[in-house]
Amino acid sequence: MKWPNFLERKQILFSPKTLREEAIRWGDRYMELQRLHDAVAFYGRAQHNDGLRLILGMAVESGDFLLFREAVGGMSPPVEEHKPLSRLAERAAELGRWHDARKAYERLGDEKGVRRAMEALAALMGNSPPAAAPEGSEHGG
Prior knowledge:
With 141 residues, this protein is mainly α. It has helices at residues 6-14, 20-32, 36-46, 49-62, 65-74, 82-94, 98-108, 111-125. Helix 2 runs antiparallel to helix 3 (36-46) and helix 3 (36-46) runs parallel beside helix 5.
């Protein structure tokens, strides 16, 4: 089987001539190769929620916030994301994927989780997180 180059793939993905079944087949092929971002693009194009749910589960288990966002964005109707996003944040933290954990915590509105992720990122970079200004202190001079 010949795989399309970038331009051919883009043409298949966005062509109004591409049927839903063809988009699903391409998504399945990319899934077999573990090219998940390509698969999610084709599944999203086809509004193939079964394929998108499969990728969503993989994103949660691997702590991959970008893949999660792509899978959720392609689903119709939109999926309730709080529970899987909470699991993704926890999993990303377990795996040391602190940037992904921070993004997930931000989307959840979990300030404690964001702070924990920022501290871990700062430690990895060899920096200290910025110290909070003492109450009542004024900035500037």
